[in-house]
Specification:
It contains 2 helices and 8 strands; from the N terminus they run H-E-E-E-E-E-E-E-E-H. It is of the alpha/beta class. An 8-stranded mixed sheet has the order 7-1-4-3-2-6-5-8, with no helix packed on it. The N and C termini lie far apart (95 Å).
């Protein structure tokens, strides 16, 4: 009878350890197993240079979603964004690609609009600003300086 209690305790300990490991893996991996997926919107940009799948989507510095895919459509970059369900995007919202610091990661910044209409699941953000290329800015500055 005593051997049964020790085996049960060890088995319970192993199962509890496995559950703790699985919980930490899900939390640290930012995996949403049960819901909270949000809704999807798209945005078209002339350039998404440096933007990667999984990049953050922010409003006022607060992360509200992530980039789920980037693909080419009609010679423009079509970016799919997954937005948290409790965030509402207005019809005149502006999506722009920004850089965290001078050489940091690229992310999508959304400037909220004030229109009455909302962008629903599967909708599109129409006003966009593409990525600013640092090389283009430097070359523009250099060549404009030579022409003066």
């Amino acid at each position: 009878m005593r051997k049964f209690n020790v085996e049960t305790a060890v088995g319970t300990f192993v199962v509890a350890g496995f559950l703790c490991f699985a919980y930490l893996a899900i939390k640290l991996g930012d995996v949403h197993v049960f819901g909270r997926e949000g809704y999807h919107v798209t945005a078209r940009f002339s350039s998404v240079s440096g933007l990667k799948q999984g990049a953050r989507v922010e409003i006022a510095g607060v992360v509200i979603g992530k980039v789920t895919s980037i693909r080419l459509a009609d010679y423009q970059a079509k970016v799919d964004l997954q937005i948290e369900p409790d965030v509402t995007l207005r019809g005149d919202a502006i999506a722009s690609i920004r850089t965290q610091g001078i050489i940091g990661d690229k992310f999508v910044k959304i400037s909220p609009g004030g229109a009455d209409e909302e962008i629903k699941d599967g909708g599109e953000i129409l006003d966009t600003e593409g990525a600013i290329s640092l090389e283009e800015l430097i070359s523009k500055y250099i060549f404009e300086s030579k022409n003066k």
